[in-house]
Amino acid sequence: MMECQEGKRDEIRQHIVVIGAGVVGISTGLNLVQEGFHVTIVARDFPAPFETISVDQINYTSPWAGAHCRFIPPTNETEKREHEMALLTFRHMERLVKDGKQAEAGIRFMKGVEYVERPPQAYLDLTEAKAAELGYKSFRRLDKTELPANVEWGAEYQTFCLNPMMYCAFLLRNFARLGGKIQKKVLQCPQEVFDMPEFRGIAAVVNCSGFGFDDPAVIPNRGQLVIVANDCDVTITRQNKDGSWVVAIPRGYDGGTVVGGTREPGVLDTVPDPLKSKQMLKNLKETHPQILPEGQDFKVLREVVGRRPMREGGPRVEYEVVDRNPKKALVHAYGLGGRGYECSWGVAAAVKDLLDQFAQDVG
């Protein structure tokens, strides 16, 4: 039995196809290559400089993202799983910095600040001791005198921010350097890969497509962003009692700051609303006036819209057996909404474990 499992494991490692070249897809492909798999990433879109990304690529969400890590107090099993994935990713970023890769990868560690106007109980219960148990670094509850007007709860902790173009290019470059292959192609469904002549005989396909190929549980969550040249010294997230948000995520390395605050599930409009952009900048200035020295104003580089693939019930990270002879694995890893960057290496580790589980189950 052990020999059968080893044989199946070796068969799987011969060639894996990962669908999707967003941050989750490339992280997964790179992790598998580092673990000894032979991998091809197949995708419609691949990383490119921010200046060349087109609005036509609105569904390729990674370039538009504000790429940082927010530690959210978990209150259910889905949130606990995502929290563990975020911790794994955080530790991975720490290792990259320790190895001197921060500039090459576009990583900066800095202070993260959270403000909540109407905090739920999970936030009120978040003491320094509880935060330490959850893996927060340098967590501190803010005093009332440190909070902006109308904010009831605030905290700060250590986090990281990424320049997404630099980081995704870094991942892809390392993937290729280690022998990973790349193919540009538009797919209609993940099972299509099994019938492509160049992939015939492969044992597994990993679906990191973001939207999941017509998964009815996945809906686009429209996010409008303003990219400004002004650099912010912290990453800020403010939750207002009316349901709106104030978000500032520094990209660093001359990438400016992502200013956000809209979450519009199911809205497909691709055109930025100038009134919303103006309001987001105004809200940030009121929340964190330090971003603008006296007499200066925001220098807007671009107004963009992205569609975060949000999945009801949480991300799908599991495998199914495709009824072929021999049986194949279709591993799903998509639907992370706005948490792709912060959970990416946790998802990558889970995919590797699922491939090992498949080898054991059918070996």
TrEMBL record:
Question: Is Zinc among the key words of this record?
Answer: no
Q: Which InterPro entries match?
A: D-amino_acid_oxidase_CS, DAO, FAD-dep_OxRdtase
The superkingdom listed in its UniProt entry is Eukaryota
Alphabetized GO MF terms:
D-amino-acid oxidase activity; FAD binding
The root-end lineage is: Eukaryota, Fungi, Dikarya, Ascomycota, Pezizomycotina
Name this protein carries in UniProt? FAD dependent oxidoreductase domain-containing protein
Residues reported to bind FAD = 61-62
One GO term under biological process is: D-amino acid catabolic process
Q: What organism is this sequence from?
A: Staphylotrichum longicolle
